[in-house]
Structure formats: structure tokens, C-alpha cells
Amino acid sequence: MYGKASAPEYRGPLGELSVNTSLEEVLAKAVEEMRLAEQGGKSLELAHAALAAAEASRRLGRVEEAEQAWQDSFRAAERAGDRGAMAWAVWSGGTLARQRGDLALARRRLAEAAELAEKGDDIVARGYSLAGLAETGRIQGDYEAVGRLHEQLLAEARRRGEARHTVWALEGIAQMHRNTGSFDTALAMFEEAAQIARDAGDDRGRAWALRGMADVRSAQGEPERALALLTEAELLCREVQLVGALAYNHKMRGNVLYRAGRYAQAEEVYRGALAEFRAMGEPRGEALSRLGLVKAEARQGRPAASTAADLDALERALGDIGLQRAGDMIAQARAELGVPAPDAVPAP
């Protein structure tokens, strides 16, 4: 049995906030608490408030403000001599690095956060940091290395009845199953995650689970059902102001439309998602939206030479981010569109 989802990254005076508190509200309260803590010379309270500001800013897509806030949180925690608070700050910085496309930096920061959390005896911060490492490895495509860690974290979350972490772990494992073609297993896990999130009042987790369900339904040839799931998820994203999740929702909508052969609609949606990712400085989402856009344009008669040049550039961009499956992804797009690889020799 799972309890209500909590937001342990909202600490100290902000601990009363829920996972579904609007991010603008979180940010406003965090800024006010930072002001009060600075006036009172309370370093630990400042660390807590700056952490909340960092996370709200990151999720709103305000990456420069998030970068400054997590560093402020770390310095305040260091002054207070609280390793747990230091771990939370570095976790936030590592999560931000992943969002900004620097996966190597993300792994270094998250490993440091896990070590600080262990020294500070903060079990929750350690769990979040290990989860961040697992998610970063999954995004890179290193399934063998992180699959076991995902399973371990899922078992721990189930044992403690932590709804939010159970949902996260289920979604991560489901995504790996989806990407390796085990659609039925992936769908069952996404559905379980969505139900746990609903029961626990975790709108953020439910929005991501619905997106995963939509992806699988689309891959199984059910576009209308997939679009309905994405619409439901979009409402949740807008209510909590999840800018990044909303952009990925829109990118997935483009994928669904593309798979259904609705290329002009897909192109329009991909363009919108691309603008959203660019505005929030999210290179992975930007590159994936560009890939969808290139494919949709190619299906509508764009010259093959232009498509080939764009795919070459995208292969480099995805590789620079650190995605191990970038080559396979682009090779699949080339084969799908009938575009030869740069070193391919034309048939006689």
C-alpha cells in the first residue's frame, strides 16, 4: 500500500508544499523564504529555500536561474555544515546538467550527491541521487549498466511504500522495455505507474506515465487512443506548470501523428515542440524534435539531399549529447526514408 506522494526536495519551511503545488507558487514562496533566511542569517533555511527555487526554476525551463539557485543552496548548506542539504543541492545541479544535455557532468554531480547523502545519513537524498544516475544512464542508452539499478530502486521503493519513487522506477523500466520492443510489458508497467500516481495524488508522475502509455499505444497502431492519453497528460502538465514535461508531451504527439501518416500535422507539432525546447535550453528534446521534423518534411517531398544533410548533423548532435544509440536512431531514420549513409556506395 502506498501513501500520498510527497516532495522531499521542498524542505524546511517549504515542506508543507505538495508535489502538485504550481511551480510559480513554489518559486514565489522560495524567494520569500530565501529573503527571510538571509535577513536572519539562517544558512540551513537558506539552503532549503534555494533548493526549492532551483527545482521550480528548472522545471519551468529557466535554466540560468536554476543554475544560480542550486549553487546558492550548496554554499548555504556548506556554511551550515549539513551534508544532507549539500547532497540535495548537488542532486539538483546534476538533474539540471542532464536537462541541459551534459550527461557526463550530470553523472559526476549525481555520484557526488549520492556520496554526500551517504556521509550525511540522508537516505532519501541518496535514493534520489542514485535514481538520477540510473535515469541518466537510461537516457544515454546504457541499459545493461543501469537496468539492475532501476530494479533495485523499484524494490526499495515498493518496500517503503514510496509512491513517487515507485512510479519513477516503473516508468524507467517500462521505457527500456518499450525501446527494446517489449510493448506489452512496457504498457503494463506504464499503466501500473499511472494508477499508483493517481492514487497517491502525483500529477507529475501520472503525466509522464500517460505519455509512456500513449507512446506504446501508438506503436501498437492505436493513434486515437494515444492522442487521448496525451491530451489527458497535457492538462496535468499545464495545471502544475511542467514546462519540460509539456514539451516532451508535444514531441510525442508529433511522433503519434507521424506514425499515423498525418505528416503535415506532425510537422506543425514538431515545430512547436522544437521552439519549446529551445526556449528552455534542452538540447536532447531539441534534437529529437528536429529529427521528427526532418522525417515529417521528407515524407512531404523535401529534397533527399537536404534530408541527408540534416540527418548527418543530427547524428553528430545526438552523439555530442552522449546518446549511445544515436547511430542506430539515425540509421533507422535513413532506412525509413531511403536516404543513404554518408559513406554508402551507390549501387551500380
TrEMBL record:
Pfam families documented for this protein: TPR_12
InterPro entries, alphabetized: TPR-like_helical_dom_sf, TPR_rpt
Domain of life: Bacteria
Name used for this protein in its record: Tetratricopeptide repeat protein
Organism: Streptomyces xanthochromogenes
